[in-house]
Predict the structure.
Amino acid sequence: MSDSVTAPPGEVVVRLRDIGKTFPGVVANHDVNIDVRRGTVHAVVGENGAGKSTLMKILYGVQKPDSGTIEIGGEQVNLSSPADAIAAGVGMVFQHFMLADNLTVLENVVLGAEKLHGIGDGARRRVLELAGTYGLEVDPDVLVEELGVGARQRVEILKVLYRGAKVIILDEPTAVLVPQEVDELFDNLRELKAEGLAVLFISHKLDEVLSVADEVTVVRRGTTVDTVPAGSVTSRQLAEMMVGSELPSPATETSTVTDVVVLDVQDLTLYAPGSERRLLDGIDLTIHRGEILGIAGVEGNGQAELVEAIMGMRPGVTGRVTLGGDDLTGRSTRERREAGIGYVPEDRHRHGLLLDAPLWENRVLGHQTRRPVVKGPLVDRAGARTDTQRIVEEYDVRTPGIDTLARALSGGNQQKLIVGREMSGDPVLLIAAHPTRGVDVGAQAAIWGHIKRARRDGLAVLLISADLDELIGLSDTISVLLRGRLVRSFDPEHVTPEDLGSAMTGAAEGDNR
Amino acid sequence: MSPRTTRVVLAVGAPVLALVMAFVITSLVLLAAGDSVADVWAQILSVPGHRAIVNIINAATVYYLSAIAVAIGFRMNLFNIGVDGQYRVASFAAAVVAGEGWLPGYLNTLLAVVAAVLVGAMWAGIAGLLRVTRGVSEVISTIMLNAIATALVAYLLRKVAVDDGGNNTATKQVPEGSRVPGIQIFDDVTVKVYGFVFLAALVGFVYWFVLSKTRFGFDLRATGRSETAAVASGISVKKMIVVSMLLSGGAAGLVGLPLLFGNDYSYGSTFQSGLGFAGIAIALLGRNHPIGIALGALLFAFLDEQSNSLQIVVGVSPDIVKITQGVIVLTVVIAYEVVRRYRVRLEQRQVAAALDEPATIEEAKA
């Protein structure tokens, strides 16, 4: 079992070679090569959507690679389930903890691994022994619900160690921690590597990576770009590697930006529920007719909140939102849509579609008060069907018909339908959140074309994206969102990848903690 | 087969399959207990007489209203288990109002109907409000409200009951002029079809119209299908929850009225109970569709009626059909899920096929 991993210090315990993984229409990983050495902390950094998570799921047996080989402790392995990975000595600590609140620490650790040391004194001895060896301070008899976040994470690590892991994957472990807890975690990681374990540390916080890792592998666009010793790079250089140095030239279309303000947002602020933490912090932004404002940022820095605040979907937002001189503050989502906001949501399955309804009913969604899909208090079935047919043709939605369920379409075609719908009814502002995420290349080009056309037609466009090509290729201005604040603005014609990368990761001077 | 035919075949096939399975399982139970399978089915599946037909229609009328009330919640993804309590509170209120006879003739009936709808809506509305203000699951709160309804009605009945000389504790009788006359459909039997059968039909029509044709119905169905998409489309989900609980409760308020105005004429301790639970099963069986529910209600009423004589004729307890009814609910849920998955796969294949065709044409041209 776990004794298959008995390499001397410094020896490679995990070797990934030419790993590839394709989902229908999307390449998630290709040509991934990583060597993780025993007794080291190996960081994997990359943008959201770069393929880090898929890669780790492959290593933990959650997903099977389409190509390539995985060697653990010098032996080639075939991981078809997490159980296989655990047997091979690989353990994973997920970002969202998987603990039973109403059980004690000991019970949580033993749960599911009762065969190893039973559930009695043997198990307790083993847990205390592990906690002592690796410096993981926890009281085995306290209920998990009484623990703080940092302690819960230690329990998760203990769980993984209890199952005999020699390679531990930590998925964005610091995302949920406060600075002191981060320090404690890093102390624990140093203990782990001192005891000869290998730690895979996934993150996009470059300063943290540099402070704890021995080696850093950069992932971009589904593949490994390079592996470098942590001591030999700066966070700026890492940022540059993450976003890529050869960025495409911005679209050479002539500027259509006018001086007519369409969307004006002032001092938009949103607190996390029941806390003093600001998800959005004094956002000011203006978009003119014919202008595309791109919002760049590492995910989780307030993009989703910004969109939902402008759409009126979040309670507790303060500040002003004006659309074409019309004050929308305090108005409902429906009133904002009626005022002329088209909304392409980030998660089309959750927010954009009724998956089990036919396409023509999905045309009505979001337009329940507007022609041609309704007439007075009634749904205008004929009008909705005709207009759905128009969208299917104009936006090239590949479908056998408009009675097909939305669920049956591919992601790209679902997205084209949404874009077509949101461009209906003469909107003045289009909010597009990650409009080409998870769609195939053909649909991506088509959607970019539609967004450019919207700009030519005089719409104001708010574009949120993690894809820098998309942002630079489409935007007239790019603003960077970091920890809920718009920290810098760039002209896409002159922006350098280092500037953008360091602004996004907070590695810029003055923002470098 | 054209896609439309496929859809119809699947829609009809699933419940038929479920019924067959339920009959098979019931037969196994009979076999295990050593009863004659053939005799029981011969009795249950015999052609009902005239009296039985009228009884079936009457029972189905009441079931239908109950199932529609449940279905309104289902379309919103709300599990209103409280129809049972709602109709009993509402029937009691209607009986009190009608019994007092403040208004003459059918105005009195109308007033009682309005009272029933309002009381039913209010009773369900409590659960709706708890859900949106405090996040209490409507499943839990409506179950609790059922228990409270039982106690409340029993308590109030004591207050308003009149002494009719017998053992039955009941409200005042509905005045003759406010009763709803039955319809004589067979000359050889005295039982009549409840006049309120038309009320049930009307409720079914309104249910269908509002849900499939109106903006409001669209909002309700959209919220039921995806709360998150509903929010993004501008629907106020909290408002929809309260409104649909009120509507569901209002419809539940009508459940007891055919009995009150066509048979019992007062609300007493013998007033039929348990109709709300039958409604849940029938709404599931009928797929929340007004016609499907009508068929389901007739089926349940048919099984009830045909089982009455089982004890006398073949010496088997009529409770066997309760088993059949219960099993139907399970098999129906399974059959619909199987068919739903099959349909999604079928559609995905059609989409793939539709996408491949133009591609091959282009390739051929190239």
Q: What stands out?
A: Chain A is about 35% helix and 25% strand. Chain A touches chain B at residues 311, 313, 332-338, 343, 345, 347, 350-357, 361, 364-366, 368-369, 374, 377-379, 381, 398-401, 403-405, 407-410 (CB under 8 Å). Chain A has a mean pLDDT of 83.
